Amino acid sequence: MLAQLRRTQEKLSMWQVITGLFFVLLIIEIVVLPYGSSKLNDYSGSAGILDLRLSYTVDKAYSIIGAYSDAGRDFYVRFTLIADFIYPIVYSSFFGLLTTAIYRRVFAPQSWIQGLPLLIYLTLILDYLENACIVTMLTNYPDQIAFIAKAGSLFTTLKWTMAAVSVLLMLFGLIMLVVKSLRK
């Protein structure tokens, strides 16, 4: 299965696809996310957004969720199910395909290192798990489900950790590309 994913990744890592993903990512980051964040802050009196924290306690999660009105919680659920469903696909694909394209220019085709860009998709999985916990907390409020809040915080922390790893994988490839260019 990993071999098939790697082949698919290789086929899709064309500059046209990467460029298209970059523009979609820009639109999401410049228009969609600021709109959602602004609306969520309006609904909560700027209490915050769980997705953007590095971690949170059960009390903090429900304090934030409690700051939202019913309409705010409904908006948060819709925004998470729509925008925060598409966004992880776009950013993971962009970083994954870009890193694959860079690695293809630097490392031997059969090297195990060529498989590292697949790790980037763990961020997508963790983001979805985080979103499932947040939606569960929002839709069950005022009932508090402590283990869901703890799991959500763990997935949030792991998501941000993998996002950092994704950037480091890309930077590693760029550094190796520069080193390879300087050696020629």
Main traits of this protein?
184 residues; mainly alpha; 79% helix; 0% strand
For the terminal residues, how far apart are their CA atoms? 36 Å
- Radius of gyration computed on alpha carbons: 19 Å
Unreliably modeled segments: none
Succession of helices and strands: HHHHHH
Beta-strand share of residues: under 5%
Protein architecture, described:
The protein is mostly helical and 184 residues long. It has helices at residues 2-12, 15-44, 58-67, 70-106, 121-140, 146-183. Helix 2 runs antiparallel to helix 4, helix 4 (70-106) runs antiparallel to helix 5 and helix 4 packs parallel to helix 6. The model has no long low-confidence stretch (mean pLDDT 94).
Task: Summarize the entry for a quick read.
The protein contains 6 helices and no strands. It is mostly helical and 184 residues long. α4 (70-106) packs antiparallel against α5 (121-140) and α4 runs parallel beside α6.
How do the strands and helices of this protein lay out in sequence?
Elements: H1 2-12, H2 15-44, H3 58-67, H4 70-106, H5 121-140, H6 146-183
